Amino acid sequence: MSSPNLTLRGYRRSDLPALFALDLLCFEEPFRFSRAAMRQFAESPNAKVVVAESGDMLVGFCIVHIERFEQESVGYITTLDVHPDLRRRGVAHQLIGEAERQAREANCGAMLLHVFSGNKEAIRFYERCGYLKVGAHEGFYGIGADALIYRKAFKVS
Questions:
Q1: How far is CA 72 from the centre of its chain?
Q2: Using CA atoms, how far apart are residues 94 and 109, in angstroms rounded to an integer?
Q3: What is the pLDDT of residues 126-156, one digit of tens each?
Q4: Which one of 23, 25, 67, 81 is separated from 35 by 20 to 30 angstroms, measured CA to CA?
């Protein structure tokens, strides 16, 4: 399958229903967000949100929060969602690439994320993108739903 023709842009408040609907499509409980949580994450003052559109359809998004962690600014990937019909077509790579660019622009030294330990596809994706496993968080998603912690350091230029 070829890569879809994508437009990447920032978040608009009018995107909230589409973001929420896509998150429901992408994730099962306990991994999905409530509408209120999605709004809070997307509209937080420290949020960088990259939205992917194909035509007039929102097909993916990435929410990153710029935070302080161990003496440095980092981008924390809150969520990365891609429409199931468009997976393995480069959408996630474009979203994460733009999110990383914005984090570097905000003087972040690295990106961090949690990923469900059972989500092998996502783990392979992040590892291909240069993320390294740096730890684990037992019960992060609830009892028996552990997370792995991944980090990608940015090269100092």
A1: 20
A2: 20
A3: 999 999 999 998 878 877 789 999 999 998 6
A4: 67
Phi and psi angles of residue 36, each rounded to the nearest 5 degrees, phi first = -65, -40
Q: Please list, in sequence order, all residues whose beta carbon lies within 8 angstroms of the beta carbon of residue 99, skipping any fewer than 6 positions away.
A: 48, 50, 62, 64, 75, 77, 80, 111
57 lies in a domain?
yes
- Summarize pLDDT for 97-114 with one digit per residue, the tens: 999 999 999 999 999 999
Q: Is residue 119, in this structure, part of any structural domain at all?
A: yes
pLDDT digits (tens, 9 = 90+) for 33-47: 999 999 999 999 999
In a domain, 142, yes or no: yes
User: DSSP readout, 35-66?
Assistant: HHHHHHHHHSTTEEEEEEEETTEEEEEEEEEE
**Residue 120 sits in which domain range?**
7-153
Q: How far is CA 3 from CA 22, 62, 86, 91, 127, in A?
A: 19, 18, 8, 8, 21
Indicate which CATH number applies to the domain containing 74. Answer: 3.40.630.30
Please count the structural domains in the chain.
1
Taking the C-alpha atoms of residue 130 and residue 100, their distance in angstroms, rounded to an integer, is 11
Angle at 110 between CA 106 and CA 112, to 5 degrees: 110
